[in-house]
Design a protein that fits this description.
With 266 residues, the chain is of the alpha/beta class. It has a single domain, classed as Rossmann fold. 43% of the residues lie in helices and 17% in strands. It contains eleven helices and eight strands. Strand 5, helix 3 and strand 6 form a beta-alpha-beta unit. The longest helix is centred in the N-terminal third of the chain and has 15 residues. It is globular and about 50 Å long. The two termini are 31 Å apart.
Length: 266
Amino acid sequence: MRFIRTNGATLHIDHRPAAEGMPTIAFSNSLGTDFRIWDGVVAALPAGLGVLRVDTRGMGLSPLAPAEKVATHAADLAGLADALGLDAIVPCGLSIGGLIAQKFALDFPDRTRALILCCTGARIGNRHDWEARIATVRAEGIEIIGDATMARWFSPAFHAAAPDTVAAMRAMVVRQSVPGYAALCALLRDTDLTAELGAITVPTLAIAGGLDQSTPPALLEVVAAGVADGTLRVFDHLAHIPCVEEPETIAAAIAGFLAEKGLTHG
């Protein structure tokens, strides 16, 4: 285990240095998860690519600190990059992690080499639904939403083929802290980056799952069209957490994109 204190928070991280001339991908996880959701993707990435994974404030082993502003989390990534001696990174975010990745590209454009956005949007959900989610978990705990969350997150085929993995993911979600979960729901309630997309000029890959009920492909279409250099990939058979459902597919999409944009060698 490794922890770095930056920007007023102590963050649980995993870091694999990049080979010379290769970029580092900084992974941000989804609401209710920790950085282990990227295990399969990291294992399938080409050798030499750097990896930085972080448990978002209030999730996993990162203690809760003020967490309701997306700019705070973008600054966390910048602070981690500073601590690790990384001049520029490739943020890769899933769902709420995608909002954090977009905000990093907006606030730290000179430190962003490319952007990878997975099952996310510039605006996710609506205020009413997030307020209701916050009220529910505060009153009844996260356990109450566990089954519904899994139903949205994974395709019917994956539920049938990998029930043990689905059960493990459910356990990960319901064991998160209520204050941490509620704080990130508030961030989702309040964040809309749609009007700022045009300021993102780095090559951007938007990955969507055709069966994603939480962030359907239409949200990624908006992002890919809104940034200066966007590429949309839709995997019709995948749902909201494709990095767990089919990590090799996501790793191949990431590696292919970085190679196409001339950011990798070998």
